[in-house]
Amino acid sequence: MTSKTCILIGAPVDSGKRRRGCLMGPDAYRTAGLAETLTALGHKVIDRGNVTPDAHEADQPDHKLHALNETIGWTRALRHAARDAMAEGLPIFLGGDHALSAGTVTGVADHAATLGRPQFVLWLDAHSDFHTLDSTDSGNLHGTPVAYFSGRAAFPGFPEVQTPVPQDNICIIGLRSVDDAERAALQDSHIHRHDMREIDEHGIARPLAAFLDKVAAANGCLHVSLDVDFLDPDVAPAVGTTVPGGATVREAHLVMEMLHDSGLMTSMDLVELNPFLDTRGRTTKLMVDLAASALGRRIFDRPTRSY
C-alpha cells in the first residue's frame, strides 16, 4: 500500500439546516481515533484543527434561506482551506453538514485546474443536493452544494465558481429521497445517478466500477463525499435526515475498498454526522472504519466492535 499524507480538516458547519448538532462532528471523529487509525495503516496524518467561517453579515431569522450569510462565510473559508491542503496531501474534511461541500469541492477543483486535470465527484448520499437557492422549499442549504459546484445556477453572494465540475464528471450513488424539483433537474442533467432500487437489482459494484474507469481514463482527480445518510439508519442512526433502505455495512465497505484499489481518490468529505443522535458512538466508529477501508484497511484486519 502506498503511504499518503492525510490532512485532517475540521469543518464544524451547522448552518446548512435547522437541526443542530453537526458542529460536534469533527471532535467526534477525533475522539473515535481517526488519526490513530490512519497512522496505524502507515499514513502520515496532519491535523490542521478546525476551520472557522470568513467574516459575514448577520443572518435574519425570518429569511427564507436558513443561515445564508453564515453558509457563504463557510464556503469562502473551506474553499481556501481545501485548495491549500491539496498541495500538501489528501485532505479529509470532517463535517459538519453537507453545505460544507460547496467550499471543499470548489477548492479541490481549483487545485485540479492548476494541474491541468479534470475534477470528478463521487456523491454517496440518499439525496441529490441539487437544489438552487430558488428551488429549495425548506431553505436548508445542505440541499444545494451539487447545484452550486456544478454551476447549475447563480448563487448570489457566494464566491464565483471558477472551475465548475462538469455534470458528466459527477456520480451520485444511494439515492432514495429526491423531491419533484430535483428529480426534474436531474433528469435534464448529465449527472450519473443510481438509486437504491438499481443497487438492489444489480449491485453497487457495477455503477461504481464504470465511474472509476471514467475517472482513470481522464487522469482525473476524485473527490469522495460520504454522507452518513448514504447508510441505512439501522446501522448509522446519527444523522438528522434519516431515510430507510440505505446501503448496508458491507455495501459501504465494498465502495471504500474499490476506491482504495483504484488509487484514484484525492480528497474526501465525511459529512452530516450528528453525535447528539448517536448510540454509544456506533455511527462515528462506522464512519471511521469506512475511511480506513478507503485508505487501505483490508477485510481481514477489521476490528471487532462491542457496543
Chart the SSEs and their pairings:
Blueprint: E1 5-11, H1 25-31, H2 34-40, E2 44-50, H3 68-86, E3 90-95, H4 101-115, E4 119-124, H5 145-149, E5 170-175, H6 180-187, E6 192-195, H7 196-202, H8 205-217, E7 221-227, H9 249-262, E8 265-271, H10 282-294
What this model shows, in words?
With 307 residues, the chain is an alpha/beta fold. The chain has one domain (5-300): 3-Layer(aba) Sandwich (Arginase, Chain A). 35% of the residues lie in helices and 16% in strands. It is built from 10 helices and 8 strands. Helix 8 (205-217) runs parallel beside helix 9 (249-262).
Task: Give structural attributes.
10 helices, eight-stranded parallel sheet, 35% helix, 8 strands, Arginase, Chain A, alpha/beta, 307 residues
Number of DSSP strand runs: 8
CATH architecture title = 3-Layer(aba) Sandwich
Strand content: 15-25%
Secondary-structure-derived class = alpha/beta
Query: What's the number of helices?
Result: 10
Order of strands in the sheet with most strands? 2-1-3-8-7-4-5-6
Give a short overview.
This protein has helices at 25-31, 34-40, 68-86, 101-115, 145-149, 180-187, 196-202, 205-217, 249-262, 282-294, and strands at 5-11, 44-50, 90-95, 119-124, 170-175, 192-195, 221-227, 265-271.
